[in-house]
Amino acid sequence: MERLGRIGLSIAVLIFACVATTWAKDRVAVMDFDNKAQYGGWRVGHGASDILTTELAKTGRFSVMERGKLASIMKEQDLGASGRFDPSTAARIGKIIGVEYIITGAVTEYGQSASGGGGGGVHVGKKGYHASVDVRMVNATTGEIVFADSASASKSSVDVRVFGFGGGEKFNEKKASAVMRAAIQEIAAKITSKPLTSTGKPAAASGPVLVADVDGNTISLNMGTNAGLKVGQQVTISRKGKVIKDPQTGKVLKIKYKKIGTIKLTEVEEAYSEGTVVSGAGFQVGDVMK
User: Fold this and answer.
1) Could you tell me the pTM of the whole model?
2) Which of 115, 119, 186, 223 could make a disulfide contact with 151, Cβ separation 3.0–4.6 Å?
3) Burial 33-59 (b: 16+ CB within 10 A, else e)
């Protein structure tokens, strides 16, 4: 009986240790990658983020948000799923989805190349598959970039054709995907092997960017470079509308916004920016940049 008691205690301690380890893991969300390559469209970016999610989960270092759950929350909160957001918005998004780090990325190279030559009816060709990714990891509390790096991978195959017969290889999606996975495995290894130290400046701004003044065709905003704004950038101005709440808990389920128009920024300071109206009318102080 005493032995059974010791075994039970050991099992309880082991379970507690496992739970504590899980609690200690950093919570991470991987956004859809932006595809800047010539081929593949949005599917390549979506696939790249899926692969990175899997690879990070396999390391055991992070608690990675399941992709389906992430997409559901982003849709519910009317947030874009793409990685093309400024680090200054990470704190707001991180709080909503409940993670400590947000990973964004871009596929910068994805595709196939061909080379070769020959004579006498014999042609020897070489097909190459290439993939490159750029990744940033943002602290969802401070908006600070804590990791930024890139990785690439290539794979080639040889085909031989005699008088036009045999050996020809068209685009092989399986080989291209394998190369993409190799590049992302490299970036996942870099993320898990390096301490999460700063590689960029923290985003000082917090909260939404609001219209601070309207003077004819000139619109002033209450934030500038501290929110990642730049001269020449076009931003959409919207107005907060109907707020939908849970009738039982009072929790805000969704806020509807009405687009007022677009402005082009002509002057950007650290905590102030100014722009001219490109489209729309009826701008008011308190309208929000979306």
Assistant:
1) 0.53
2) 186
3) bbbebeebeeebbbbbbebbbbbbbee
